[in-house]
Protein: EGF-like domain-containing protein
Amino acid sequence: MYSCNCYSGWTGVNCQINENECGSNPCTNGDCLDEPNMYSCNCYSGWTGVNCQIDIDDCSAEACANGGTCVDHLNAYTCECPKGFRGAICENDDPCASNPCMNDCSCSVVNDTTAVCTSDSVYITGTFCEQGRLTYVSF
Ligand SMILES: [Ca+2]
Ligand SMILES: [Ca+2]
Structure:
């Protein structure tokens, strides 16, 4: 009869069993790899840290143009643009920022480079409401 005094991480009569250090699911956002007396984590995309618990900061100083504020997401980032700029990374001027509409028309952004001007009055026409004139009548 004999008994073995096993090294840490091993068990069984002959210390032949590799104990499972992954049993407690230590890898928050990754796959656990059981190793002798330890575990390692193979992190999913966008995560880092010993237990994959850290969301990688995807923002860099140059992430957003024109002073936009970078917001980190999982494996991605978005930009919050300052007034006057639009686009995924604030790379475009807001087409309404230059107040292109005349005659009290309201400006609506169609896309990053196009705006439309609309008027309540049927007498005001033109892309920038430049035709016709709004007249106020008082009694
Ligand atoms: Ca192990
Ligand atoms: Ca991230």
In short: The pocket of calcium ion (ligand 2) is lined by residues 46, 55-58, 72-74 (CB under 6 Å). The chain is about 0% helix and 30% strand. The longest strand covers residues 30-35.
